[in-house]
Design brief:
five-stranded parallel β-sheet
């Protein structure tokens, strides 16, 4: 999924969520800063105040550990056939619950939607805090790609390159090597042929579950 970090500088908009990019990957952070200095828009969503947030057009702080709730809420927003602007209203129970959990306001959710709902080019960067939810972000990118008929960049930027390598090689229970969805038959068939083995569609245990069962 990852593209070239030089693409950050070329993108019209960049969304960073759960990544302290200037610490985790200083080189990539430099390209993001250059993009901002060139007038590109940057949105940062995190539970802590990071250095890159000082360059942000939009800096949003949420409660620690609630990134996944926000991501799923955004995905739901773009999946809904209802008028997008009405999705985050006081009559929408899902939106109200999202605000309660994340500490955000309904108006802020609408601002995040507006940032992503554009025909301009976008690069989404996420970090270790939400690495396990890369699949949800990938689904969001697919929705945006379909809506605007363009490719949205999705990039993992973490401090542990070995961990990222393990992720790409299929160490996430519901993902196959190359960040392919285990649930999709066509993906399983690809590796069943390569490995000459039958693969179950049922995901294995994540590292927390493995640890608890030792």
């Amino acid at each position: 999924v990852n593209g070239k970090i030089s693409d950050f500088e070329k993108s019209d908009r960049i969304l960073i969520i759960g990544s302290d990019i200037t610490k985790d990957n200083p080189v990539a952070g430099t390209f993001v800063k250059r993009a901002v200095l060139k007038g590109k828009k940057l949105a940062v969503i995190d539970s802590v105040n990071t250095e890159i947030a000082g360059f942000a057009t939009l800096n949003i702080q949420i409660k620690d550990g609630t990134e996944a709730v926000l991501i799923n809420s955004i995905l739901s927003m773009f999946s809904d056939s209802v008028s997008e602007k009405s999705i985050y209203s006081k009559n929408n129970n899902t939106a109200v619950e999202t605000c309660r959990i994340t500490g955000l306001k309904l108006e802020t959710l609408s601002i995040i939607f507006d940032f992503l709902d554009t025909d301009e080019s976008i690069q989404i960067i996420y970090g270790p805090k939400i690495a396990r939810f890369g699949k949800v972000l990938y689904s969001l990118c697919e929705l945006l790609n379909t809506k605007w008929d363009k490719k949205i960049g999705l990039n993992y930027m973490g401090e542990l390159s070995n961990s990222f390598g393990a992720y790409l090689m299929g160490m996430i229970p519901d993902m196959l090597p190359g960040s392919l969805d285990l649930a999709k038959k066509v993906n399983r068939e690809k590796y069943e042929k390569a490995w000459n083995a039958s693969l179950s569609e049922v995901p294995g245990l994540n590292y927390n579950e493995v640890y608890k069962n030792i």
